[in-house]
Specification:
The complex is a heterodimer of chains A (127) and B (547). Chain A is of the alpha/beta class and 127 residues long. In chain A, 45% of the residues lie in helices and 19% in strands. In chain A, strands 2-1-3-4-5 form a 5-stranded parallel sheet, sandwiched between helices. Classes of the chains: A alpha/beta (127), B alpha+beta (547).
Chain lengths: 127, 547
């Protein structure tokens, strides 16, 4: 079955960079879904059931913590591995991500190579 | 003292009089430049003079001779060069067009003086090596006497045009005693050889020529936007009622898009015919049409017709669709390259951020040295490197961390010895892309071709040097590599100085503790038999043992 990665970030350049980083995985049949809006992000996360979700914290309409919380409480939400990717690196933000059951918390600027390695491992795609 | 160069003498013609307004060119090919009509050669033995040529540049492609056929570093398809073709050089934010004789920098069109233009073009065309002063004067000022000052002034104008200076040398590097080298990566594009096929009109091909040609061309499916391509195909079918289906296939026969749906049919036989001729092939009810980019076959459009014969209307519509797909592919190619570049910059920012965090983490010098090597490995992409710190007393450069051929080093370097030693002495970074022709290089392994040395310096001290090297088969270092390593090294130097101070403080502290302990120990144990006081007691205090 085709694996899916969803990127939700309001910064277009981050979406473009992440897509470029993860482009190698598309050769292995991974589908990339991208949106810049919080509500649309939640809709896609619930409808498409991505295997991996890169989620920004500060988003228009619905913030990343709300999306993660609602997704994890949905019937299939637990299957989605959520990586919060945000510029906010305070302990309180990390705690908030933990409270909504985000699987990981990475601060920007991220290391592109590490992101690709992490995504490959989570999706079980050998590189 | 300036030296006059006389190309005639160097070429073995001591009595050849200088002819400032003519140019001796090998009789190979014919001038195809804009002065072709007036550029009639006057033959003289093995050379031909072109007395009416106002600028040598229109015949530039001839006097380059064999060099022109396939310069090193050309990306993309080799063997597509055409003698006499105009060229486009793309580097950094610049584009030099030898057809329009213009330099475009950051969107601004600059007009250069002919000699400045020729000098820049010559350096660009030979960016894979150092160009000696003599060679440059012979090529740009043939059969003229020119002084070093004239050449240096011309190089200065070249640098000015590029926004470079003699101090920064970001584009044109001066290698004292050797010559000049263009150090920024260059993409050299010939005028696209336009196949005379119905797929691509000459004008359309020029318009859809990408700004660069990457080393590895991504497949068509990565260049086209999936949903937009599907919409395009659907619109195409709506426009051409004679067609029932339309697909796009890649050279491996895989269907990447289609309307109404993708297909799993095998079109490899038809595709092979298209690949050979680059022209449309029809085998009723199918027609296959090539999608070309700069002469390379990216894929093909396959259409299924309702009627058995393809009409001229269908072919002309297919030509338009092919041009549209080529244009989309060009956009995709440029977008990919821009994103890759942005990603590289983001990677640099991320790694510099890591280093900045390490400054506050109180790491040891060894740990920091290892971090510098690991970080630079990710950006500069070399497996070989070392970090050396200068011993304050012996002046020996001691290795703190090393990887690849740099470990273990056999030669011991000191300040002022070897390229690394000179970098420590002068505090200036150096790129040496041909170590074997550089007398300063101290041989410690036979496999190093290029070397990048950057000092580890703070405001007050030069602590050491970071060395990165590439083996014979490796690539050469660029000004961009140097710039990144300088930034990294300056951050690391602060952290290392702090670490050195911390280590010195720890050592001093340990010595003080030892000294204190030595002074305390006799006081605790000093006791003479029969004497009522111990060494710790003061005179007048009661001895607790005597109670």
């Amino acid at each position: 079955m085709e694996k899916k990665i969803l990127i939700v970030d309001d910064e277009v350049h981050i979406c473009a960079l992440l897509s470029q980083v993860l482009e190698d995985l598309t050769d292995a049949g991974v589908e990339l879904l991208v949106t810049q809006d919080g509500e649309e992000g939640l809709r896609l996360a619930l409808a498409e059931k991505p295997d991996l979700l890169f989620l920004d914290a500060m988003l228009p309409n619905l913030n990343g913590y709300q999306i993660c919380g609602q997704l994890k409480q949905s019937p299939h939400g637990e299957a989605t591995y959520v990586i919060m990717l945000t510029a906010r690196g305070q302990a309180i933000d990390r705690q908030r991500a933990q409270d909504v059951q985000a699987n990981e918390y990475i601060t920007k600027p991220f290391d592109p190579d590490m992101i690709l390695e992490k995504a490959s491992t989570i999706l079980g795609i050998p590189r | 003292m300036s030296t006059a160069h006389k190309p005639g003498k160097a070429a073995g013609y001591p009595h050849c009089p200088p002819q400032p307004r003519t140019h001796a060119l090998p009789i190979s090919g014919r001038c195809s430049g804009e002065h072709a009509e007036v550029c009639q050669p006057v033959r003289n033995g093995n050379t031909a003079h072109y007395p009416l040529v106002k600028t040598v540049f229109c015949c530039y492609t001839m006097f380059l001779g064999d060099k022109f056929t396939a310069p090193q570093g050309q990306r993309g398809k080799a063997g597509t060069w055409r003698k006499g073709s105009p060229m486009t050089y793309v580097f950094a934010d610049c584009l030099l067009d030898t057809q329009l004789y213009t330099l475009r920098r950051a969107g601004r069109v600059l007009q250069l003086r002919p000699k400045v233009f020729q000098t820049l073009t010559y350096l660009l065309d030979h960016h894979d090596r150092v160009v000696s002063k003599q060679e440059l004067t012979e090529k740009i000022w043939p059969e003229q006497f020119i002084s070093d000052a004239t050449l240096e002034s011309c190089i200065k104008l070249v640098r000015q045009a590029l926004g470079d200076t003699g101090r920064t040398q970001q584009f044109v590097q001066t290698l004292h005693g050797h010559g000049y080298r263009f150090v920024v990566p260059v993409d050299i594009l010939p005028e696209a050889q336009v196949p005379r096929t119905p797929g691509v009109e000459p004008g359309a091909a020029a318009a859809s020529r990408p700004l660069f040609t990457p080393a590895i061309q991504p497949p068509l499916r990565k260049l086209l936007d999936k949903s937009k391509t599907s919409q395009l195909l659907q619109a195409f079918l709506d426009l051409v009622p004679d067609l029932s289906s339309c697909w796009i296939i890649e050279p491996d026969g895989q269907c990447i898009a289609g309307s109404p749906d993708k297909t799993s049919m095998d079109f490899s036989t038809l595709f092979d015919q298209v690949a050979q001729t680059h022209t449309a092939v029809t085998l009723a009810p199918y027609s296959v049409y090539p999608v070309l980019l700069s002469g390379a076959l990216l894929g093909a459009i396959v259409v299924q017709q309702k009627r058995s014969e393809s009409t001229p209307d269908v072919l002309s519509m297919l030509r338009l669709l092919s041009a549209a797909l080529t244009q989309s592919a060009v956009f995709g190619l440029e977008r990919t390259a821009i994103l890759r570049d942005a990603l590289d910059k983001y990677r640099e920012i991320s790694l510099l951020y890591t280093i900045a965090e390490a400054i506050g983490a109180s790491l040891s010098t060894g740990q920091l040295a290892q971090l510098v090597l690991d970080t630079s490995h990710k950006i500069v992409r070399t497996e070989h490197g070392s970090v050396m710190l200068r011993h304050p007393e012996t002046d020996i450069l001691e290795i703190q961390a090393a990887r690849g051929v740099e470990h273990p080093r056999k030669a011991v370097l000191k300040t002022g010895i070897g390229i690394a030693g000179l970098v420590v002495q002068t505090g200036r970074a150096e790129i040496v892309n041909d170590t074997h022709s550089d007398a300063r290089f101290v041989q410690y392994t036979g496999t190093v071709r290029s070397l990048l040395c950057v000092p580890l310096k703070t405001n007050e001290h030069i602590l050491g040097v970071v060395n990165l090297s590439n083996p014979l088969s490796g690539r050469m270092f660029t000004a961009r590599d140097e710039k990144f390593l300088i930034t990294l090294a300056s951050q690391a130097a602060i952290a290392m100085e702090n670490a050195c101070l911390m280590e010195a403080l720890r050592t001093q502290n340990a010595a003080l503790e030892r000294s204190l302990q030595q002074r305390q120990t006799p006081r605790q144990t000093l006791r003479w038999p029969g004497f009522p006081y111990t060494g710790q007691q003061r005179y007048g205090e009661e001895n607790p043992d005597s109670r």
